[in-house]
Design a protein that fits this description.
Elements: E1 4-9, H1 13-24, E2 29-32, E3 44-48, E4 51-54, H2 65-70, E5 80-82, E6 87-89, E7 97-100, E8 106-108, H3 113-137, H4 151-163, H5 167-178, H6 181-188, H7 192-203, H8 216-223, E9 230-231, H9 236-248, E10 252-254, E11 259-265, E12 268-274, E13 279-287, H10 291-299, H11 306-313, E14 321-328, E15 342-345, H12 349-356, E16 369-373, H13 375-378, E17 388-395, H14 403-420, H15 424-427, E18 428-434, H16 436-443, E19 479-481, H17 495-505
Parallel strand pairs: 1-2, 1-13, 2-10, 6-15, 13-19
Antiparallel strand pairs: 3-4, 5-9, 6-7, 7-8, 11-12, 12-13, 14-17, 14-18, 15-16, 16-17
Helix pairs in contact: 1-9, 1-17, 3-8, 6-7, 7-8, 7-12, 10-11
This protein binds flavin-adenine dinucleotide.
Length: 511
């Protein structure tokens, strides 16, 4: 007899959300997490004596309101050190722009009147289009094909929402879905700092440059979230609040529990085996880890037909973001910039595209672009008094980097930082660079990709992670997917986990 109704593999924010949603419906759920803490991409860690940092993700804007409210994360301790965070688009000359409010509602700094007016119009348009797509994050993608009944109504629903935009907007929406962000920015704006920051935001976490086709889809995905915020205590606090919330609902979370394989008996998923040899069983097995790892390593090709093996193997998972942590023995000076903002080094669209080009050929950017947060500027406890900690997401680096390449890339990053914050190098007491390979090894981000599968037009909606597994259910009865590799993708969002649980509860299984 199964001991649990459901076993969730992976205690990241998607796994916790799936567990919480099922437990709310009275299911007995066990979460198995290989690490010593739950959270996956949402963890806070000590990285040097006296210094701590959000280990992977460092900003929040995509957290699904169903999860935040449904698990009542506030009452389980989730608080914010900053909300509605501004972005400073840095300039090497010190002439920076500050995009305030939810994605540049107002802009402070020297900007022409023409650009101010064009940006206000463009921003409104982008926000309007992103809002149309928002509801689709909170549902399973429709199934295509004969005999799927009201599944097609969902597509019709999307169509209606888009049509509701009106004729002109509709044309514009279709145009923007197909072209790239660089062309849009060049059409509408002049200012390099503004265009650079938006181009950077569009390609953040993606294997794309601003001139790559369909890049604007990713900006819509980002804008479908909320304004940026920083949880008190770093991103780990999101997972801590989620863990407390789901435990209060009766979920059991086992840490240091590495799932080695999924048990398949009579072609059904019936349980899991841990690395220590222990076996556990349940009626429903939910994998909230990478889909490629799920199918190829945990299930194994012998239980899959050849089509599934190749579809799982072919999921695109290129990731080129690097995480940099610096322990600083003083206050960095970004030429007078307010450190209580998010800092972006992406001086122009061209700079972002030039940074992307080498990685196509397996090389790192000579002049990297990056997003910087100084958590110690917002809250005490991240660094000793008078010291600071810097957390940056830097692009672009290839997955394969030997020791020499890592050292050379760090040198290029530090040289870039030095031109925006002169003297920063002398403040560094410890640095940590997590390359895509490190992120794969330490956190399971295969290929270093932060969505557990590229969020590209060909891997979205009913194509995510691939046809036949896009509605969270897999071809193996009893096995479900619930991680970022499923719709609607990654970020500290939990939407995939919540959607998967809803689908399980509705008994939507095909078989
Ligand atoms: C460098 C980088 C920076 C990022 N920055 C941001 C950001 O600022 N904001 C944002 O919103 N998003 C950011 N992201 C994306 C975000 O971290 C991920 O999309 C998100 O963590 C995905 O959540 P998840 O729960 O699906 O998977 P994960 O967070 O990866 O969780 C999966 C969990 O499963 C566990 N696990 C894996 N294999 C096993 C196994 N065999 N047995 C048991 N447990 C297992 C892992 O330890 C992990 O805890 C970033 C990603 C990267 C790589």
């Amino acid at each position: 007899m199964p001991s649990y109704d459901a076993i969730v593999i992976g205690g990241g924010t998607n796994g916790l959300a799936a567990a919480g949603r099922l437990a709310k419906a009275g299911r007995k759920v066990l979460v198995l997490e290989q690490a010593a803490v739950a959270g996956g991409g949402a963890t806070t860690k000590d990285f040097a004596k006296g210094y701590k940092v959000s280990a992977v993700a460092h900003l929040l804007n995509l957290l699904d309101p169903r999860v935040e409210q449904g698990l009542d994360l506030k009452s389980h301790g989730l608080e914010f050190a900053a909300t509605n965070l501004s972005t400073t688009a840095l300039s090497p000359t010190g002439d920076y722009l500050i995009l305030k409010g939810n994605y540049g509602e107002t802009i402070a700094g020297t900007l022409s009147d023409a650009d101010r007016a064009s940006w206000a119009e463009l921003r409104q348009k982008l926000m309007r289009f992103a809002a149309v797509l928002r509801p689709f994050k909170a549902m399973a993608p429709p199934r295509l094909g004969k005999g799927v009944g009201n599944e097609m109504m969902k597509l019709a629903g999307l169509g209606l929402k888009i049509r509701g935009l009106g004729r002109d907007d509709l044309r514009e929406f279709m145009r923007l879905m197909l072209i790239n962000v660089a062309d849009v920015l060049d059409d509408e704006l002049q200012d390099d700092r503004l265009k650079g920051a938006i181009a950077f935001d569009t390609v953040l976490g993606a294997h794309l440059g601003p001139r790559s086709p369909n890049s604007l889809l990713l900006l819509f995905n980002r804008l479908a979230g909320e304004a940026l915020s920083i949880p008190k205590g770093g991103m780990g606090s999101v997972a801590t609040a989620m863990s407390k919330a789901v435990q209060a609902l009766g979920v059991e979370i086992r840490l240091n529990a590495w799932v080695q394989s999924i048990t398949i008996a009579d072609d059904k998923a019936t349980g899991v085996t841990l690395k220590n040899g222990e076996t556990l069983s349940a009626k429903t097995i939910i994998s909230a880890i990478n889909p490629k790892t799920t199918f190829l390593d945990l299930v194994g090709p012998r239980h899959l037909d050849t089509g599934m093996v190749s579809r799982a193997g072919n999921i695109l998972m290129r990731g080129n973001a690097v995480k940099l942590h610096l322990a600083l023995k003083g206050t960095p000076n970004f030429k007078g910039v307010d450190l209580k903002t998010r800092l972006v080094i992406a001086p122009s669209v061209r700079a972002v595209e030039d940074a992307f080009n080498p990685v196509k050929y397996g090389e790192f950017s000579e002049n990297p672009v990056m997003e910087i947060v100084i958590p110690s500027a917002f809250e005490e406890g991240f660094a000793p008094k008078g010291h600071h900690v810097l957390s940056a997401i830097v692009q672009y680096a290839p997955i394969a980097m030997d020791t020499k390449a890592r050292a050379a890339f760090l040198k290029r990053i530090m040289a870039t930082l030095e031109s925006y914050a002169p003297g920063i190098g002398k403040l560094v007491v410890k640095s940590e660079l997590l390359t895509p390979e490190d992120l794969e090894k330490q956190y399971g981000f295969v290929g270093g990709n932060w969505h557990h599968g590229e969020l590209a037009a060909e891997q979205m909606l009913f194509l995510r992670p691939f046809i036949g597994a896009a509605q969270y259910e897999t071809a193996i009865p009893g096995l479900w997917l619930a991680g970022a590799g499923s719709h609607p993708g990654g970020g500290i969002s939990s939407a995939a986990g919540w959607n998967a649980a809803e689908r399980i509860l509705k008994g939507k299984g095909r078989r």
